[in-house]
Amino acid sequence: MSFSLQVLAFLLMIFATSPAKAAQAFDLVAIPAGTAQLGDRQGDANEVLRSVQIPAFRLMRREVTNRQFARFFLASGYRTTVEQAGKAHVWWTRWDRKSGANWRRPQGPQSNLDGLADHPVVQVSAKDAEAFCKHHGLRLPSEEEWEYAARGPQGFRYPWGNTLTPASLPGQTNAGTYACCEASKADGFLRTAPVGSFPRGRSPFGLDDMAGNVWEWTSSPFPGSPNERVIRGGGWGNNQYCLRAAYRHGNPPDIGLDMVGFRCAAD
């Protein structure tokens, strides 16, 4: 059996799923139209307080998983920009650009997806995320839609409310140490966690993992840096400051990182 056929057989084995699971795969939550309270006066200078009218839209309840991305890969033959580049950034080794890192091997050639089928896919660029969403008739959310979905009409600071303490952190999200910035296993997961593992951290609209687990690509350019794309939500290595729903960070849209994934939206 050729190497490519071995890889295909392996993916089919670890990502096989039942028809019932497939039908529930994207679980788009209806987000009603409303006034979004955006920004944070105690945050960074670019987190300007503002009110924005958000039309009704839909957003995946959970982040796209390795299982879902593998199905897309098998159905479309899509090759990610990271795979084409042959290397990607690995936060685990402090932003080392590692050869052989990709969505199937998030931390490099020595890593794999064993036991991670229902963890969020990482090492996908914004372009890869857009390709996945488009393949399924969906799109990436704008950063305004994303923040509204995370905070709810109340404009919470975090998806679950306005406070975050060292004692509550492990039960609400998959994140790093309370003091910046190291990965932590206090929540049960050193890196990514299966999507939906922290129901206490759900947003007012019932969305999971809008803080922590992985950062999420949006369709919006980063303020002042039109060649970068906004990512939101913080990830498994971040502290409470980066978990705030108003926190925004910019990354080039053609790179992959082992702490960035995505979820899709629809009108």
Summarize the model shown.
This protein is α+β, with helices and mostly antiparallel strands and 267 residues long. Helix content is 22%, strand content 19%.
List the helices and strands and how they pair.
Elements (H helix, E strand, L loop, with lengths): L2 H12 L4 H5 L4 E4 L2 E5 L11 E5 L2 E4 L5 H11 L4 H5 L1 E4 L5 E4 L26 H10 L7 H9 L17 H4 L42 E8 L2 E8 L7 H4 L4 E4 L8 E2 L3 E2 L1
Parallel strand pairs: 7-10
Antiparallel strand pairs: 1-4, 2-3, 4-11, 5-6, 7-8, 8-9
Helix pairs in contact: 1-3
Give an account of the 3D structure.
With 267 residues, this protein is of the alpha+beta class. Helices cover 22% and strands 19% of the residues. The protein has eight helices and eleven strands. It has helices at residues 3-14, 19-23, 66-76, 81-85, 126-135, 143-151, 169-172, 240-243, and strands at 28-31, 34-38, 50-54, 57-60, 87-90, 96-99, 215-222, 225-232, 248-251, 260-261, 265-266. It has a four-stranded mixed β-sheet with strand order 9-8-7-10. A hairpin with a 2-residue loop joins strand 7 and strand 8 (225-232). Helix 1 packs across helix 3 (66-76). It is globular, with a radius of gyration of 18 Å. It starts with a helix and ends with a strand. The model is unreliable at 1-6 and 17-23 (pLDDT under 50).
